[in-house]
Amino acid sequence: MDVEVALHVNGTPQRLTVDTRTSLLDLLRERLGITGPKKGCDHGQCGACTVLLDGRRVNACLALAVAHDGGNVITIEGLAENGDLHPLQNAFVEADALQCGYCTPGQICSAVAVLDEAAAGVPSYVTPPGASTVSLSDEEIRERLSGNLCRCGAYVNIVRAVRSVAP
Questions:
Q1: 139 and 112 housed in the same domain
Q2: Consecutive 10-residue runs of the chain (167 residues): their mean pLDDT?
Q3: Residue 54: which CATH number?
Q4: What does the alpha-carbon distance between residue 110 and residue 26 come to, in Å, rounded to a whole number?
Q5: Same domain, yes or no, for 49 and 118?
Q6: Which residue range(s) make up the domain with 132?
Q7: pLDDT value for 68
Q8: DSSP letters of 41-106?
């Protein structure tokens, strides 16, 4: 069955008719030509497809497009503003936080959410109990990014990049 879906994708309104089984990832890649989010495992295990949906990170391969009608989606392509890279995009380049680059869009989108979560005081598994603020230590960053896998093993530099942007 086909249904009309309206989304804002990287600041642009989109209205498409999609099969109710269409994932957000397939809508982005196949229907809109937005190839930053990658189809890695297609099971929500690798994080290569991570995007920001209404300000929260999601695995786009697990999100049905019809379930997010009216949603606001930001992909790696939508992070830059006025031609300037997002601070995390610059930090990944400066810290050499990528090798093959396949996971990088998902890593960066997830890292954007990590900064927002920490700023909002959202605790993680490693946040000390009763902490009133969240400090993004290396351990905290690793825990929060644990859903994003890098087959090349660039984790040390990924953590360094995120830490360099963290307040």
A1: yes
A2: 97 98 98 97 97 98 98 98 96 97 98 97 94 94 98 96 96
A3: 3.10.20.30
A4: 19
A5: no
A6: 87-165
A7: 98
A8: SSSSSS-TTEEEETTEEEETTTSBGGGGTT-EEE-GGGS-BTTBPPHHHHHHHHTT--SS-SSHHH
